[in-house]
Specification:
This protein is of the alpha/beta class. It has four helices and five strands, in the order E-H-E-H-E-H-E-E-H. The relative contact order is 0.24.
Amino acid sequence: MATVKVTDDSFDADVLKSDIPVVVDFWAEWCGPCKQIGPALEELSDAYEGRVKIAKVNVDENPNSPAQLGVRGIPALFLFKDGQVVSNKTGAAPKAALQGWIEESL
């Protein structure tokens, strides 16, 4: 399962009302660290298929969702469970660190 593109309009349905935990990656095209973690998130979305959804929100195209969550720097990763933020982190990290963060947040 590839990462899911989420917009401000679909945020409630895709993230807050999801029946499985969702990792949301707030990113932008011009962000180098965002591009660094992109492939790792794609691989993790396959590894967690059916257990965790990995979603991407482009902050340039969708400014409302990150603003509501107080995102100040990207990449910003938020893990939602039952519609609530259970953990978040900012900045790039290797795949193993991202996977560890997801595991400990579940």
